[in-house]
Hints:
Layout: E1 2-6, H1 10-21, E2 25-29, H2 33-40, H3 51-60, E3 64-67, H4 70-74, E4 79-82, H5 98-107, E5 118-121, H6 129-136
Parallel strand pairs: 1-2, 1-4, 2-3, 4-5
Amino acid sequence: MKIAMIGTGYVGLVSGVCFSDFGHDVVCVDKDPAKIDMLNQGEVPIFEPGLQDLMTKNVAAGRLGFTLDLAMAVAGADAVFIAVGTPTRRGDGHADLTYVMAAATEGNSEQHGFRHAEVVDCRSGSRHQPFCGRFRDCFTPLP
């Protein structure tokens, strides 16, 4: 399966590396050039025991790559995971979904078109129910 992972923080990077270790082809995309450069040089920007070895092994096997190019990352993907930051909103303590919505909207544009992939929002600890309707509105229905 071809997987695109949008975001290379703790959730996105660890998930992408693990999916590649399960045998899937994974491309992780991020907007931070310094982070992508670091990853492409084989350096892990976070601490997670064993992650460095798994990342090195799967990059060498050709199952894992890193890019700034969203269109390339999602082209032909069977699944797209959105694993971007969800900081706490000021005032009410709920997750700020601005970055998730931006990733969904940008990824669904005509030039990127991940409309034919399954898209999953990967976050920890926030409520999904109020979010689902707004998230669904970012996507063009399949023909």
